[in-house]
Amino acid sequence: MTYSxxxxxxxxxxxxxxxxxxxxxxAIGFRAEYIPADIGxxxxxxxxxxxxxxxxxxxxxxxCAMFGxxxxxxxxxxxxxxAPHLRESGRTYASPxxxxxxxxxxxxxxxxxxxxxxxxxxxxxxxxxxxxxxLYAGLEVHPTPQSLVGALDAARRAPHLRECAPEDLALxxxxxxxxxxQRIVARAFELxxxxxxxxxxxxxxxxxxxxxxGLMTEVARTVAERYPRIEFRExxxxxxxxxxVRKPGEFDVIVAENLFGDILSDLVAGxxxxxxxxxxxxxxxxxxxxxxxxxxxxxxAGRGVANPCAAVLSAAMMLEWLGERAxxxxxxxxxxxxxARGEVRTPDLGGSDSTKRMATAIxxxxx
Length: 367
Ligand code: NAI
Ligand code: MG
Known about the structure:
By secondary structure, the chain is an alpha/beta fold. It has helices spanning 14-27, 41-47, 53-60, 75-81, 96-103, 146-151, 154-157, 178-194, 212-224, 237-246, 258-271, 309-321, 325-341, 355-366, and strands at 3-10, 32-36, 64-69, 108-114, 124-130, 140-141, 171-172, 199-204, 231-236, 253-256, 279-283, 288-292. It is built from 14 helices and twelve strands.
């Protein structure tokens, strides 16, 4: 079967690491039709949307997508860099990754982190992060009218809010739905089951975030009952961060809402060799986008020294999702071998090798 795959390089090192991933995919004999599509800062500046509609059409016509990285900047920069003829159109910048996650309902962000560089404390954790709700749902207000403060009854708990001028008060609302909780927790347990993992830990803060954290906890406990062979644990976000550093072996699969999951997965990436080797998948019921966790790394872009391992491991996650398990395992093993040997290392890992050299080493190890 030939797969049709959207290929979104994006900004900075995005295209560099995807090129490397592509040479590795070709070399191990994976055959696909790759359809390049535009995404990133340039398309915001020139056309007013970093995810042009034609790219959405490419995504709709393909099985899944590989995505490199994009650059995004604060609202004031976005407004300043927008082409003059688009400035009156009332457009505001919306992250293309967030747009993709919403439009394709890619509700599960899966980020595995495993020690591959011989760190002293072994880590083997998969963070399953809710990808569409939580504090990143985009339900934000600024300026905030006093009528809203009154409606939320916020002034009763925090009387000083009553004196806030609208300009001086901003709200970002955490959105938690029962459906959203059910599907992300179920996804975490299904993943644990399919990989033979032993434990799922819900990371929350339900003692303080009583409404949203409370709902997530209630749902997670119910879903957990359907999986009696997998141990279910609960941890608070703050304690979990400390414990991940001190005793990472306690964690196996972690499930968390959007912001907590974002923070936890970067923490895990930090424990396991940094952004250059951390892969991820954004998975929905009908589509998936695979991407390295890192951004466009403007500090090293264009120099050919970005570490391609995160992109290659993301490609391996794609192969797994497509059902090409043997090829996926071969890629993962090849990256693990190269990193463990340590003969070839990009600068982020303390070496001086290039992106291409690393890709060549991975290909050699995969043979
Ligand atoms: P970043 O991940 O781009 O870079 C952080 C640090 O890690 C930098 O020192 C960079 O050189 C290094 N690094 C990242 N990937 C690497 C690789 N493959 N090999 C070697 N070193 C690597 O995050 P930063 O600097 O916070 O953001 C830069 C831009 O990327 C911003 O515009 C940000 O909005 C965007 N960004 C995009 C993401 C995405 O496309 N998914 C995710 C995170 C940030
Ligand atoms: Mg992040």
